[in-house]
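Here is a typical sample entry:
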Amino acid sequence: MRSIVKRAALLASVFLVFNGAAARAATVEVKVAFPFVVNGQTLPAGQYLVEDQGSTAVLIKGENGNHAEAFVLTRPAPGHDPAGENPALTFTRHEAQYRLSGIWESNSDGRSIVDR
């Protein structure tokens, strides 16, 4: 039962818009319609920039009056983007919260969030 809930929440993805056409984009823009948790910190719903900070680090930074931000560590994600070829963020539901679980730039280029 628990894995069904996690799989269902994983499919609750948010589409990203690329700011460039590079093979591995340095920055993508995303609008998240609900509050979500990253490394124990709750970020409000809103507009965010997701910036690649190197091989494992990613900065999630609020825009348009949203001053929330968080650094996350990532590792290559197995499998394929649940949104197909479209970039997406993936979340898992834990009790009444959504936790960021992955960042997908393409069908095969994904990063899993490393929980601290």
About this structure: The first helix runs from residue 2 to 10. The helical segments are 2-10.
